[in-house]
Recover the amino acids of this structure.
C-alpha cells in the first residue's frame, strides 16, 4: 500500500520533459515543446466527443438549422475556463484536488464530486458500447452487403462485439500505466482516434460546400448568440410557425420550443461533464506536470479539446441542418391519406399530427373515429407537416443515408461509421481511465495500480452490461446519473472558483490585481451558466414523472444537508504534499 503523503519518485522522462519546457520558455520558442508534450487536453477531447455530443449536435441541426451553432461555442468556452482554473490550482500546488477540497473547503463537496464522477463513468459508458455496436452493424459491416445487413440484433453478436471492444479499450488504458514507449503509444492511439473523427465529419461539410449545399451567410449568423431561442422557434421553423393561424402557431410553437430547450440543455451538458473536471487534474499529475507546465495546460486544452470539439460538433450541426432542417418528402406532403402513409416518416409524425387534429376537434375528439382523424391529418397544411418532421428523433446513421446521393452509399456509410465508432470507442477508453483515478482516491492510494485497474474494470463491465439492460432499467439509470451529475456540476464549478480565490490553498501563487479580476469575471460567467443549465435540466427531468421528481429532490435535499455539515468537518490538513 502506498503512503498518500509520501513524495513520489520523479521519473527521468518527467525530468526531461520539464527541462525541455523550461529551455523552450527561456528561448521564447514554446510552440514546438507544447505540441510535443501535449496530452491531457486530448484526453478531454476523447471524452467530450462521445454519443452525447453527437446526439446533441445532430438535434441542434434538425431543429434550428445552423442558427444554434453559437451554443456549443459558449458551452465549451465555459468548460475551458473552469478546467483552466482547476489546472492552475493543481499545477501551482502539486496537491491532489480531492485531498485539497476535503481539507481546505468541504469533504461533502470532495466526496460528492468523486461519487458523481464514478456514477457518471459507469452509466455513460453503456451508450458508448451501444453506439460502437450500431456503427459496426448499420454502417461499417453493412458496406457492400446486398441487403444492407450487418451484425443483426442477437444477444450473441452483441456479446462478442462488446467483449472485443472492452478488451481492446482496457488494453489501451493499461498502456497509460507504463512509462516511455507504451505511454507514448497511448497518446498516439488517442490522437489518431480524435483526428479520424475530425477528418470524417469535416470532410462531409467540405463536400457539402463543394456541392453548393451550404448557406455561408446563415452559418456565420448562427455563431451570434440568440437567447430568444429558449422561448421561441428558430431557423426556418420560426418562419413556418409565423405563417400559421394563431391556434396552429401556439400548438406547434409549444412543441418546438419544448424540444429546443431539451436539446440546448443536452448540448451544453455534453460539452463538459462532471467526470471531465476530475480527469484533467489527475491526468496532469500522473504525467508529473507542475508549475512550469501551466502555460502548456492552457495550450493543451485549447488545441487538444476545444478546437476538435468545435470542429466536430459544428460539422455535425451543419450536416444535419443540410439534411433534415425544415425538409419534408413529397409523399408526406400529399393530402391523400394513402400516399401520405407511404412516407418513411409517416409513423414518426403520426402522433404529432393526430394531437394537432384532436386540438382542432376539441370536445368532438373523443367521438370521432381514427380514420376520420387521419384524413384530417392528411389535409393539414404542408407547413404543419414540416413542423411535425422537426420533432422526429434522428440519428447519425440516418444522416449517412440522406447523404448517400451526395457521397455515394458506401462512402457515406464508411465516413459516418468510422466517425461514430471513433467517438464511442475513445469515450469508453477515457471513462475507464477516469474511474481508475477515482478508485485510487477512494482507497487513498494515489500511486497504486491495483485500485486503478479495478476502477477501470468496474466502468468497463458496467458499460458492457448494456446488452442486458432494456426498458425501465435502461431509462431510470441515466435519469438518476444525469440528474445528480448536472446538479453537481455547478457545485464543482463553485468549488473551483473558491479554490482560485483561496490564499490558504494557493499562497503566493494566487492571482492578483487585474489578473484576478479577469479570472473571476470569466469564472463567474461559467458558474452562472452552469447553474442556469442545471436548474433547467432539473426542471425538465422533474416534469417527466413524479418518481423522477422524488428521486432528484431527495438527492438534492440529502446532499445539501451534507454540504452544510461538511463545512464543520474538514479533513485535517496533510503534513506533506504529494501527487499521483
Amino acid at each position: 500500500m502506498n503512503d498518500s503523503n509520501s513524495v513520489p519518485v520523479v521519473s527521468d522522462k518527467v525530468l526531461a520533459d520539464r527541462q525541455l519546457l523550461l529551455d523552450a520558455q527561456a528561448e521564447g520558442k514554446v510552440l514546438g515543446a507544447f505540441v510535443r508534450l501535449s496530452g491531457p487536453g486530448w484526453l478531454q477531447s476523447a471524452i467530450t466527443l462521445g454519443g452525447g455530443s453527437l446526439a446533441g449536435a445532430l438535434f441542434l441541426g434538425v431543429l434550428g438549422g445552423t442558427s444554434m451553432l453559437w451554443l456549443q461555442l459558449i458551452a465549451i468556452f465555459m468548460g475551458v475556463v473552469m478546467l483552466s482554473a482547476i489546472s492552475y490550482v493543481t499545477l501551482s500546488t502539486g496537491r491532489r484536488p480531492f485531498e485539497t477540497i476535503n481539507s481546505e473547503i468541504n469533504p461533502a463537496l470532495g466526496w460528492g464530486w468523486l461519487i458523481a464522477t464514478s456514477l457518471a463513468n459507469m452509466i455513460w459508458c453503456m451508450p458508448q458500447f451501444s453506439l460502437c455496436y450500431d456503427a459496426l452493424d448499420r454502417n461499417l459491416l453493412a458496406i457492400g452487403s446486398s441487403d444492407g445487413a450487418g451484425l443483426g440484433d442477437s444477444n450473441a453478436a452483441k456479446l462478442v462485439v462488446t467483449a472485443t471492444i472492452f478488451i481492446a479499450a482496457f488494453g489501451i488504458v493499461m498502456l497509460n500505466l507504463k512509462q516511455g514507449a507504451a505511454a507514448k503509444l497511448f497518446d498516439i492511439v488517442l490522437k489518431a482516434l480524435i483526428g479520424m473523427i475530425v477528418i470524417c465529419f469535416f470532410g462531409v461539410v467540405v463536400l457539402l460546400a463543394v456541392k453548393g449545399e451550404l448557406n455561408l451567410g446563415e452559418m456565420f449568423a448562427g455563431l451570434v448568440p440568440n437567447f430568444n431561442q429558449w422561448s421561441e422557434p428558430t431557423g426556418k421553423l420560426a418562419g413556418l410557425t409565423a405563417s400559421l393561424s394563431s391556434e396552429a402557431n401556439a400548438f406547434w410553437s409549444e412543441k418546438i420550443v419544448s424540444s429546443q430547450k431539451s436539446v440546448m440543455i443536452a448540448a451544453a451538458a455534453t460539452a463538459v461533464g462532471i467526470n471531465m473536471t476530475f480527469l484533467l487534474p489527475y491526468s496532469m499529475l500522473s504525467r508529473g506536470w507542475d508549475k512550469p507546465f501551466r502555460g502548456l495546460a492552457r495550450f493543451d486544452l485549447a488545441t487538444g479539446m476545444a478546437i476538435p470539439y468545435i470542429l466536430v460538433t459544428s460539422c455535425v450541426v451543419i450536416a444535419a441542418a443540410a439534411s433534415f432542417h425544415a425538409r419534408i418528402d413529397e409523399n408526406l406532403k400529399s393530402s391523400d391519406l394513402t400516399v401520405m402513409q407511404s412516407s418513411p416518416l409517416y409513423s414518426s409524425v403520426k402522433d404529432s399530427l393526430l394531437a394537432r387534429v384532436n386540438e382542432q376537434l376539441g370536445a368532438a375528439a373523443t367521438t370521432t373515429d381514427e380514420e376520420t382523424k387521419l384524413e384530417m391529418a392528411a389535409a393539414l397544411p404542408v407547413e404543419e407537416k414540416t413542423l411535425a418532421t422537426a420533432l422526429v428523433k434522428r440519428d447519425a446513421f440516418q444522416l449517412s443515408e440522406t447523404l448517400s446521393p451526395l457521397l455515394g452509399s458506401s462512402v457515406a456509410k464508411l465516413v459516418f461509421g468510422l466517425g461514430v465508432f471513433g467517438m464511442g470507442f475513445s469515450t469508453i477508453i477515457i471513462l475507464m481511465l477516469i474511474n481508475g483515478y477515482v478508485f485510487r482516491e477512494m482507497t487513498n492510494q494515489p500511486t497504486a495500480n491495483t485500485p486503478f485497474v479495478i476502477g477501470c474494470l468496474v466502468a468497463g463491465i458496467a458499460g458492457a452490461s448494456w446488452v442486458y439492460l432494456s426498458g425501465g432499467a435502461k431509462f431510470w439509470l441515466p435519469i438518476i446519473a444525469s440528474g445528480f451529475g448536472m446538479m453537481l456540476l455547478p457545485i464543482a464549478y463553485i468549488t473551483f472558483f473558491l479554490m482560485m480565490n483561496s490564499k490558504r490553498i494557493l499562497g503566493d501563487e494566487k492571482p492578483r490585481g487585474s489578473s484576478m479580476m479577469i479570472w473571476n469575471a470569466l469564472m463567474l460567467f461559467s458558474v452562472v451558466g452552469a447553474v442556469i443549465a442545471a436548474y433547467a435540466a432539473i426542471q425538465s427531468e422533474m416534469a417527466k414523472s413524479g418518481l423522477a421528481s422524488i428521486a432528484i429532490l431527495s438527492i438534492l435535499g440529502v446532499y445539501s444537508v451534507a454540504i452544510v455539515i461538511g463545512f464543520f468537518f474538514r479533513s485535517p490538513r496533510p503534513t506533506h504534499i504529494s501527487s499521483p
Summary: Residues 486 and 534 are 5 Å apart (CA to CA). Confidence is low (pLDDT under 50) at residues 1-9, 574-580. DSSP finds 27 helices and no strands in the chain.
